[in-house]
Each structure stands twice: as C-alpha cells, then as structure tokens.
Amino acid sequence: MDDVFKALADPTRRELLDRLHDQGGQTLNQLCSGLDVTRQGVSKHLLQLEQAHLVVTLWRGREKRHYLNPVPIYEIATRWINKFERGRLDGLQSLKNDLEDCSDDSDSTKSTNSSLT
Amino acid sequence: MDDVFKALADPTRRELLDRLHDQGGQTLNQLCSGLDVTRQGVSKHLLQLEQAHLVVTLWRGREKRHYLNPVPIYEIATRWINKFERGRLDGLQSLKNDLEDCSDDSDSTKSTNSSLT
DNA sequence: TACATATGCAACTATTTGGTTGCATAATAC
DNA sequence: GTATTATGCAACCAAATAGTTGCATATGTA
In this predicted model, what pLDDT tens digit does every residue of B16-53 receive, in sequence order? Predict the structure, then answer.
C-alpha cells in the first residue's frame, strides 16, 4: 500500500494516470509525447505505477500496452471515508466550500476546482 | 492538490490520519504517544497535513485540537474512478482478488487486506 | 511570582527521489 | 541480413525530504 501513495505523490505520474484514464492501452512512446521528461524518465515513472498496481500492462509484440487500474484508489477512499460520510459527500459541494472558506490559509483566493496538478 | 498527495505519501502521516479518523480532537502530545519520532517530527507532519487540508485544527486555550477532513480524499477517488465504476467496485471484492491473483508480483502470498502501512 | 505544560521556529544532516546519459536487447520492416 | 523501432538496465547527480537538536513563546497552575 505504501507504493500506491508514493506513486501518487508525483505530478508527472498523476498526469500519466489521467492520460490512461482518458485512453487505455497506450505505449511508452505514446505517453512520452508532451511531457518535458526523457523517455527513460517516463519509463521509470510507469514502472513505479506498475509496482503500485495502479497501472496494468499487456505485451503485444514489441509494444507494451498500459491500462489504469482503479482498485487501489478505491481502497484509499474507503480507508478514511465512512460509508455514511460517502453518502453525504456525494451531494455536498457546499460542505467543501464551507471548509475552504473558514480555513486560515494564506491565499484563500484560489478555488478548489482550479488546476488539479 | 499536490500538497494532498505529498502529505499522503508518508506512513507516519497516514498513521496520524488513522488515529484522527478513530478519534478526533486529539492534541499534538496525544498524537506523539507510540510513534518513534520526536515531538517536533510529529509537529512537522501535522503541519503538512494541515496545509493539505487533510487535517483541520481548533485552538482551545493552549491546546491545539486536530480533526480529520475527508473531503480531499474524496476528491482523489472521484478523479480516476467513474461513477459507473464506483458502483461496480462497491460490491466487487472479487474483481480486486482477480487483479491480485493474475499480477506477476514477486511475493503473491500476501493478502490485500493485511497491514495497510 | 515561579513553575510546569503545550506548542512553534530555525539550523543542520542523512537519505530518498526525479532526472539525466549511455549502452543493451528484442521485435518489426526493408 | 540490415536498419529501424520499442523498450529495459545501470551509473551518476541535484534537489527534496524526514528526522534530529536547541531555543523561544504562550498558557495554565501552585
């Protein structure tokens, strides 16, 4: 489980998960495009995602297809969110806003939905 | 959002979240007991959890009470899990087991539910 | 007041981590 | 067979991180 949290702690790896969530089965070279990291850099990130079981792979000839596995993320949610809380949170955008507003944060200007990195 | 993932990436901080999920309103010194880290170490961890909005605090005299905030964790789940997938996953322990079984992991003996760290 | 309790801040260190370059291996195309 | 494409492995480096020690501040209590 430690591998899952470590894997999610990097913005490049989260970007890769976003792309695989958008379209599964992409290869390493496909996933490299647009990222300002070398191919080997991306390769190492994908390896970490694999070891965390967040990404499952399938060899097709010389190509390695990558797919997102949502199970570990689901386990994170169920760890700290009770069933009844999940029910409440599902509809309560207001609660989120309330917690944001009353926080003594330095820059309370930024909205919550802006720029997931 | 980056702060949330970084905060969750450390086992000590996850242990703190577990304790606050178990009982809210604990102080720094209460949370120190049992952890093999100094008070200042725990303090720095709690500060990171605060900045990630995973923990909300409330001053009571000279005591600082700590409470868990589940909202950021809920947002993680909704990022990579589609609504229909959430519905399926809710009842499908079997899917999780299947994915574990067919994984090419070195030590496939360990069960999924054992020892969240 | 004097003392104990509860927390915060700053400097320093060892380890981890993200990224690189260079070379090796394997499958497809000509 | 030769060239090209797709990926993997190892060594190296700079930056971030977890942890420490020491001191400062503020709130209760005798």
Answer: 999 999 999 999 999 999 999 999 999 999 999 999 99
- Give the total number of structural domains in chain A: 1
Residue B102 located in a structural domain: no
Q: Which residues of B are less than 8 Å from A5 in CB distance?
A: 5, 8-10, 14
Residues 54-73 of chain B whose Cβ lies under 8 A from any Cβ of chain A: 56, 68-71, 73
Nearest-angstrom CA–CA distance, B97 and A65: 22
Look at residue A94 and tell me whether its pLDDT is greater than 90: no
Taking 3-state DSSP, the helix, strand and coil percentages for chain B, each rounded to the nearest 5, stand at: 55, 10, 35
Count CB atoms within 10 A of the CB of residue A50.
Answer: 19
Distance from CA of A38 to the nearest CA of B (A): 22
- Residue A94 lies inside a defined structural domain of this protein: no
Residue B9 lies in a domain: yes
Residue B80 and residue A17: Cβ atoms within 8 Å? Answer: yes
A65: its two tokens: 């297809």
Q: What is the mean pLDDT of residues B89-110?
A: 39
Which DSSP string corresponds to A29-45?
Answer: HHHHTT-SS-HHHHHHH
Q: What is the pLDDT of residues B101-116, one digit of tens each?
A: 333 333 333 333 334 4
Q: What is the CATH number of the domain that holds A24?
A: 1.10.10.10
On whether residue B98 sits in a domain, the answer given is no
For residue B109, what pLDDT is reported?
31
> Is residue B92 within 8 angstroms of chain A, CB to CB?
no
B5 at interface of A, judged by CB pairs closer than 8 A: yes
A48 touches strand C (CB under 7 A): yes
3-state secondary structure (DSSP) of residue B15: helix
Q: How does the average pLDDT of chain A come out, rounded?
A: 79
More confident residue, A114 or A22: A22
